[in-house]
Amino acid sequence: MAYRVGDSDAGGRVDSDSSDRLNRMVAGIFGAVYLLVGLLGFFGDKAAGEKFAGKLGHPVFGFQVNGVHNIVHLLVAAVLLAAAAAGYRAARQGNLTVGVFYLALGVLGFFIKGTAINIFALNTADHFLHLVSGALLTAVALSGRKRTAVDRV
Questions:
Q1: Has residue 118 been placed in a domain?
Q2: Phi, psi at residue 26, to the nearest 5°?
Q3: Contacts of 152 (CB under 8 A, 6+ apart)
Q4: Is residue 89 part of a domain?
Q5: I want to staple 121 with a disulfide (CB 3.0 to 4.6 A). Which of 61, 64, 96, 107 is the partner?
Q6: What predicted TM-score, i.e. pTM, was given to this entire model?
């Protein structure tokens, strides 16, 4: 996805600065990565005793995943890719929503690791990745300029 100054979103509004393009680009890149990881997670050697939802998973790029974890990756990918395609406002909101979700999951993950609540096969590497992903998505979303009433017309 390439976005240039002057591109318009679904509402006909024109992207006018770099933060607009950055939000759309980051949502698109993160969405594509999560789509790839979500699909790859359904392949590979399953761990002995691995269930669709449970503490056990199999590695994908060093991170533990199971069926539920893969579904979440595909849902996050769909949200971010749709948001990137819809324009600045949707991309910014998608980045913020997914970013806050991943920040919360990154913190919560440390407390649920090794418990029955951990149906996503989360491990310590996942927690740090979720914290970094969440921080980046949130920072990009909050870096954009404030829209004025003139921009909304």
A1: yes
A2: -65, -45
A3: none
A4: yes
A5: 64
A6: 0.80
> Inter-axis angle of helices 88-112 and 124-143, to 10 degrees?
150
pLDDT in tens, 62-94: 888 999 999 999 999 999 999 999 999 999 999
Contact 60, 41 (CB under 8 A): yes
Q: Where are the alpha helices (DSSP H) in the chain?
A: 18-40, 67-86, 88-112, 124-143, 149-152
Could you identify the residue written with the tokens 């006018």? 16
CB-based contact 74:37 (threshold 8 Å): no
Structural domain including 28 reads: 18-47+62-144
Determine, yes or no, domain membership for 130. yes
Non-local CB neighbours of 101 within 8 Å, separated by 6+ positions: 76, 134
Confidence (pLDDT) at 14: 45
Token duo for residue 138: 């949130």
Q: What is the DSSP letter of 92?
A: H
End-to-end CA distance of the chain: 26
Residue 116 lies in a domain: yes
Number of domains in the chain: 1
Three-class DSSP category at 43: coil
3 state DSSP class of 2: coil
